[in-house]
Specification:
It contains 14 helices and 31 strands. The chain is α+β, with helices and mostly antiparallel strands. The protein binds guanosine-5',3'-tetraphosphate.
């Protein structure tokens, strides 16, 4: 096999997603320890912004600092190159996470055994489902009392609308936690709460009816395990890798990340089944990773990390071909050639200059303001990668310049923060007023703080009574034109100039939907 194909097939790029506190940071750290990417526990900093520090901007800057350095955490395991793409810990930054999910090939979802499916788990898993991203679940914290395993599996299926396939099963929990039975490899993995951490005893155990089971876990646990596994085998389908890769079934593992228990089983199964870099849709055609010409798209931008420079770092997911340092690439939106003398790989707080990168890799490019999220780079072909939508925001405010002498800085700062995807801005057509839409409260404070710190500009917010912003389109240009004219007062443009309908209430939205049946109202910027 050529080096290129060999490198491509070695890549596994995924994200770990979770509701805050479920154990994402802990699991990431354990995975990195297995791969030798870090040597000590505690090396992966949590990028959570705790609720109590909502207006502590040092905390926001600290979080940005961590986010840039942990954007990709790569390690080698069983001869594979594994790339974990980091996602922000705070739910107000959910949109960042959505975008990162466009750059991965699969995901691991962590849930707390006591809490089950929480709001963020639900939102993020649904985003994966929209794109058929293969998912593995890891139910964490089995060393604590939690919910019944069957209940949890039911909840996952019902709330998330996925079919699941348990590949490991807990033997007790909390004080009575004895380990898991690994159905994927048919072995008992025994937990030793009194032994040293990171110690697990593994017994190959093909046949659960064997009387030796009692010796390992005691009589009552053995009886329960046999019964439960029998139920599992009847209720759930056998594992089917092709169905997992299509996103149709999701394997489930149980364990305790902080005790490093069940993590190796998860990782070993992950490397067996997780997809290699997948093909990606563009508006023009499907791009295969094996193609020899390079293509990639920007899914994340970090700006002004160093106050002395106006530099930004654009993160590009390589989708096909080989990316090379100092080679000319076409920036499709700007119709210009660029070359990058110092492409960087950010790897678990290490930063390295890279000469080349392969599909599945993420390259950090220094940029002086030429990139927006969603931009495509190619070797010349005009391609627009799909699936990097903006989501309809949930909170809205007018934003005004609060310092007349700094109008220019204000406008530039806002534009750049929007390119970075901090929030969305809509300009109302009737009066030219700018409206900021966000998914969380925190972004309003972030914008105000960063305008001041990075652009010496001041902004002021004013309330605006809006319930939803939705993108509008129609197959019938006349119908769209008529709608835009008749509802002029409620139409704004997004940063790409696309028309957006601003609905004051859910009722108004419903009424216009009924009155204008030929117009489509979309809650993401992509249909
Ligand atoms: P997150 O990134 O998903 O937000 O979660 P994180 O890993 O930071 O874990 C949240 C808390 O849950 C941490 O405790 C962590 O130690 C704990 N935790 C993670 N895995 C397990 C587990 O398997 N069992 C138990 N019992 N706890 C677990 P903390 O008190 O918030 O922080 P720390 O001071 O312990 O780091």
């Amino acid at each position: 096999m050529s080096t290129f194909l060999n490198e491509l097939h070695r890549r596994r790029t995924f994200a770990i997603i979770a509701h805050p506190d479920a154990g994402k940071t802990t699991l990431t750290e354990k995975l990195l320890l297995f791969g030798g990417a870090i040597q000590t526990a505690g090396a992966v900093k949590s990028n959570k912004i705790k609720k109590s520090t909502v207006s502590d901007f040092m905390e926001i800057e600290r979080q940005r600092g961590i986010s840039v350095s942990t954007s990709v955490m790569g390690f080698e395991y069983r001869d594979l190159q594994i790339n974990i793409l980091d996602t922000p810990g705070h739910e107000d930054f959910a949109e960042d996470t959505y975008r990162t999910l466009t750059a991965v090939d699969s995901a691991i979802v962590v849930a707390d055994v006591a809490k089950g499916v929480e709001t963020q788990t639900e939102k993020l898993t649904k985003v994966c489902r929209m794109r058929d991203t293969p998912i593995i679940f890891f139910i964490n914290k089995l060393d604590r009392e939690g919910r019944d395993g069957f209940d949890l599996l039911d909840e996952i299926e019902q709330k998330l609308g996925v079919k699941i396939c348990p590949l490991s099963w807990p033997i007790g929990m909390g004080q009575r936690f004895k380990g898991v039975y690994n159905l994927y490899e048919r072995k008992l993995v025994l937990f030793n709460p009194h032994g040293k951490q990171d110690e697990e005893e593994i017994v190959v155990f093909e046949d659960l009816s064997h009387p030796d089971l009692e010796k390992h876990i005691g009589e009552s646990a053995a009886r329960i395990l046999r019964e439960e596994v029998e139920t599992l085998v009847t209720v759930y389908p056998p594992f089917d890798k092709a169905a997992y890769l299509r996103g149709d079934i999701c394997p489930v593992f149980f364990g305790s990340a902080v005790n490093n228990f069940g993590v190796k089983e998860l990782l070993d199964c992950f490397v067996d089944i997780a997809p290699t870099p997948r093909p990606r849709e563009t508006e023009e055609r499907l791009v295969q990773p094996e193609e020899d010409k390079f293509s990639g798209f920007v899914f994340k931008i970090f700006a002004n990390m160093d106050p002395r420079h106006r530099d930004r770092i654009a993160f590009v997911r390589v989708c096909s071909g080989r990316f090379e340092r100092n080679k000319n690439y076409r920036h499709v939106r700007l119709e210009r050639e660029f070359k990058f003398p110092a492409p960087t790989m950010f790897m678990a707080s290490k930063k390295t200059l890279l000469e080349e990168a392969y599909p599945g890799d993420v390259v950090g490019l220094y940029d002086s303001g030429n990139f927006k999220i969603g931009d495509t780079l190619t070797e010349g072909e005009v391609l627009h990668f799909k699936g990097i939508p903006s989501f309809s925001p949930e909170q809205f405010r007018y934003v005004e310049n609060a310092d007349p002498l700094k109008q220019k800085q204000f406008a530039k700062g806002l534009d750049q923060l929007m390119d970075e995807g901090v929030a969305q801005m809509f300009v109302r057509q009737s009066d030219g007023r700018r409206i900021i839409g966000t998914v969380g409260q925190l972004q309003f404070e972030v914008i105000q703080h960063r305008l001041e710190a990075e652009y010496s500009a001041k902004c002021r917010y004013e309330p605006v009574s809006l319930n939803k912003a939705c993108w509008v389109s129609s197959d019938d240009p006349k119908a769209l034109e008529e709608f835009l004219e008749r509802r002029k007062r409620d139409i704004a443009r997004d940063i790409h100039g696309d028309p957006v309908f601003l609905a004051e209430t859910a009722w108004v939205l419903q009424t216009v939907q009924e009155n204008f049946p030929k117009v489509q109202f979309r809650f993401t910027s992509e249909g």
